[in-house]
Design brief:
This protein is α/β, with parallel strands linked by helices and 201 residues long. Helix 1 links the parallel strand 1 and strand 2. Helix 1 packs parallel to helix 6 and helix 6 packs antiparallel against helix 7. The longest helix is centred in the last third of the chain and has 13 residues. The mean pLDDT is 96.
């Protein structure tokens, strides 16, 4: 287990369904999940869940984290309020610490210029093109994409997003990672037996 926590960004209108698979199974694997908000004030998800952040964004240091997860949110596309989270992602990537962004957070990273030189994905290519970013040629039409320390995914792919996070952090690999994905994405009952066997070893 990595002794450094995983930081999950939370902010008003964040899409609470997009990171649930990842955080639940990271926690089961022994990773501490720390929520980080714009400040210490509570935030409310798009589903109406009220969350008290464990820490404020300004207090988060890449050297004290093993991953920053950025969920989508209405605010990524309607205001500049979340731009500080994209700037924090730059700090993480510059330090070689992974960042995982899904849905609207990918647009935030595009505006910050973080997708210009990296393979990436999102909801659809023209969604990111509307940001005016320079990375269109590196867009990949896939469920989730990992390029070095950066993971991106579209809003309909929380399971693939989690899969890439698990692979990057070494939570699962090989046939166990494949079985986890088949179970939760494809409802494959045979995958459950593979996971049960791995858990017993």
């Amino acid at each position: 287990m990595n002794a450094k926590p995983v930081h999950l960004a939370v902010y008003d209108t964040y899409a609470d369904w997009e990171t649930g698979y990842a955080t639940a199974y990271l926690a089961r694997a022994g990773h501490e999940i720390r929520t980080v908000g714009p400040s210490g004030e509570p935030v409310t998800s798009v589903g109406g869940l009220r969350v008290q952040p464990a820490c404020a964004l300004d207090d988060v240091r890449p050297s004290e984290s093993c991953l920053l997860i950025l969920p989508g949110a209405d605010l990524w596309d309607t205001t500049n309020d979340l731009a500080p989270f994209a700037r924090k992602a730059r700090e993480f990537l510059d330090a070689g610490v992974p960042v995982a962004a899904i849905c609207g957070a990918t647009a935030g990273l595009a505006r910050e210029g973080l997708l210009d030189g990296r393979r990436h994905t999102s909801a659809v290519s023209f969604y990111l093109a509307a940001t005016g970013y320079g990375g269109g040629e590196r867009y990949v039409d896939a469920d989730a994409v990992t390029d070095g320390p950066l993971i991106t995914a579209g809003p309909t792919e929380p399971v693939a997003f989690a899969r890439e996070i698990f692979r990057l952090l070494g939570v699962y690999d090989g046939e166990v990672l494949d079985a986890w994905y088949r179970l939760f994405h494809d409802s494959d009952p045979e995958a459950y037996a593979v996971l049960q066997k791995a858990a017993a070893e």
